[in-house]
């Protein structure tokens, strides 16, 4: 059995802070609604990274079923926390598995969309016009679509019971 991949609170705080600041640099909330949405997004990230590096609540709650259904896996190792790869039998490093790669694509597209939309919206506000070019030419609220892509990417990479419960509420909020 390997050393457990949890209890790494420094990484929990570091990753949550990095992604929250990164999202803040793109989103730049201004209204009360923006701050509420951003706060909910930040809570999602804190919950995600807490289970990813701190305390694996989902694995603890499902450990009886996981151990009996997949007896050869050390469920308290960090790699086993990548549940989609483990449940579908991915034998290699889960960081290079199909779900992890898909999550990186979704997260990258989401942050790109937030950034591209912010530039267009900022210019439109300075000019006193509507934002109708760039992502706004095809999507009414591209920043919200970007946040949903980021949330979906993290959910694909590291699904937890808490983030699964929060996702529909955040989806509706955006």
Set out the fold topology.
Elements: H1 9-27, H2 32-54, H3 57-69, H4 83-87, H5 98-127, H6 142-157, H7 161-173
Helix pairs in contact: 1-2, 2-7, 5-6, 6-7
Describe the protein.
The chain is mainly α and 174 residues long. It has one domain (9-173). Helices cover 68% and strands 0% of the residues. It has helices spanning 9-27, 32-54, 57-69, 83-87, 98-127, 142-157, 161-173. The longest helix has 30 residues, at 98-127. It starts with 8 loop residues before the first helix and ends with a helix. The mean pLDDT is 89.
Report the sheet-strand fraction: under 5%
Secondary-structure element order, N to C: HHHHHHH
How would you sum up the global shape?
Answer: elongated
Which class do the helix and strand fractions yield? mainly alpha
Number of domains: 1
Instruction: State Rg.
Output: 18 Å
Helical run tally: 7
Low-confidence stretches: none
Beta strand count? 0
User: Overall mean pLDDT score?
Assistant: 89
Largest sheet: none
Amino-to-carboxy terminus distance? 42 Å
Helix fraction bin: 55-70%
